[in-house]
Structure formats: C-alpha cells, structure tokens
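> forwarded from #structure-qc
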C-alpha cells in the first residue's frame, strides 16, 4: 500500500513520490531534504524504502499586496 501521507507523533509527513532503489539512496535523498530545512522519515515498504518529508512554515512571503 502506498501512503501519500504519514503521521508521526501528530506531525504530518508527505511522501516525495519517488521510490529509491536502496536504503542508501533513500538516506542520501533524506540528507538533501534535511539540508533544505525539511524533517524526514524513511519508511520501508513493499521491499523498498520511501522518504517522507515535512517542513513547518515559519514565514509567508507575498509578492503582491494581499487582496482586500
């Protein structure tokens, strides 16, 4: 079963949509996400691994003024 979302301790993680060929590839992908400020979870499933990520929004940037 492919879960698009994963809940861990009340936090929602989203699957990145890719299925790495190995655990090492999943860990490398998770390291890239972590360097970009994401929290990650690696979950083994169906004989492979999947990377789930989450990032808490701390600031919202608007390009134009908000509509009134």
């Amino acid at each position: 079963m492919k879960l698009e979302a994963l809940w861990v301790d009340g936090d929602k993680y989203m699957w990145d949509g890719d299925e790495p060929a190995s655990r090492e590839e999943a860990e490398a992908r998770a390291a890239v996400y972590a360097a970009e400020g994401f929290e990650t979870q690696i979950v083994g499933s169906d004989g492979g691994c999947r990377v789930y990520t989450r990032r808490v929004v701390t600031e919202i940037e608007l390009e134009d003024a908000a509509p009134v």
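QC bot note: The helical segments are 23-35. Strands lie at 5-8, 11-15, 39-45, 48-54.
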